[in-house]
Amino acid sequence: MNQLNIIIPDRLIGQRIDSALALMLPDYSRSKITAWVRLGRALIHGKTFKPKEKVLGGEIVELSIKVEKTNDWVAENIPLNIVFEDADIIIINKPVGLVTHPGAGNWTGTLANALLYHDPALANLDRAGIVHRLDKNTSGLMVVARSELAQKNLVEQLQTHSVSREYSAIVYGHMISGGVIDEPIGRNPKDRIKQAVVEEGKQAITHYRVIDRFAHHTHIKAILETGRTHQIRVHLSHIGHPLIADPMYGGKIRFPKKADEALKEALKSFNRQALHSKKLTLTHPISAVEMSWKAPLPEDMQDLIKILQSYDAA
Q1: Where, by residue number, is the active site (predicted)?
Q2: Would you state the pLDDT for residue 67?
Q3: For position 168, what pLDDT does the model report?
Q4: Where are the domains of the chain?
Q5: pLDDT score recorded for residue 219
């Protein structure tokens, strides 16, 4: 356990003490510091205090920092497709079928379990360093932090929308052109498992561009400006172009009139939403250098596009 004595300067008079400590300790998130204060690991004149108390100026805070596991997740030897890694971040190309982290019904066999096996030190970070997620049946690029400072910085980048995330999607319907969907998203009032466009939801913005048009389907790229749960899936369904094979927002399989049996079979056998995180751009949390990675379309989506080119040509 590390012991720190922190003198809070007069320039921070009037601020909450937890906010002031977060400014003095940039390697740690405010939520982590607030938790330490509540646990009694921060003292002023030998006494505990509340996070919301105001700075008077000149206080000496005695802080005990203890590195500890943040969860009981188990390390598992699950293969990872690592696109890039250094001392601060890991870039993963997540396969279809891999859940991001343990939860109800999936306590093992997840990306988080695999990461803990790859780097046991990630057990000391919230969510094993995971700062954003992909749905189980969405493939593609994700970034994972390897330190408190990197995690804090990446979360801030995500919150300020400075991380660029570009997806490939194959949707029902013939799109004429791209556009922007700016519709709030929140829980579906009729089905709490689902998300929906609702007036009281949080702002959600998705940009989309056409890559290739077919007679009854379209291959597009979607760029997230915000990162709401199921955002691309909800937004595209809302405008009448749901993802092919999306079990939650896609509805029944749509066969074009007089469709060839090969096209029907391809649509029936495609067993996950046609969505892939293909490009990720961010500022490295430590070096401040802009970095970008691309992941090719997985084989199942490539095969589907070939079928559409052959049997659903525009």
Answers
A1: 135
A2: 59
A3: 98
A4: 2-65, 82-152, 164-311
A5: 98
Half-sphere exposure (Cβ direction) of 245: Cα atoms closer than 13 Å: 19
Q: How many CA atoms lie within 13 A of 312 on its CB side?
A: 29
What the block records as the tokens of 291 is 């970095």
CB atoms closer than 10 angstroms to residue 255: 13
Distances (CA, A) of 163 to 128, 211, 218: 20, 22, 26
pLDDT at residue 28 in the model? 76
What pTM value is reported for the model? 0.81
- State the average pLDDT for the chain: 92
CATH topology for 164-311?
A: Pseudouridine synthase (3.30.2350)
Please compute the mean of the pLDDT values over residues 224-238 and round it to a whole number. 94
Spell out where 183-307 has E strands.
185-188, 191-197, 205-213, 217-224, 275-283, 290-294
**Active-site residue flag, 126:** no
How many angstroms separate the CA atoms of 179 and 161, rounded?
A: 19
Place of tokens 């007679």: 215
Rounded Cα distance, 59 and 8, in Å: 5
Select 82-152's CATH number: 1.20.1250, 2.60.120, 3.30.1490, 3.30.70. 3.30.70
The one catalytic residue among 18, 135, 246, 312? 135
Evaluate if residue 296 carries a pLDDT over 60.
yes
Dig out the tokens for 310 from the structure: 């052959």
Give the fold, CATH level 3, of 2-65.
Answer: 3.10.290
Lowest mean pLDDT among 59-73, 77-91, 247-261: 59-73
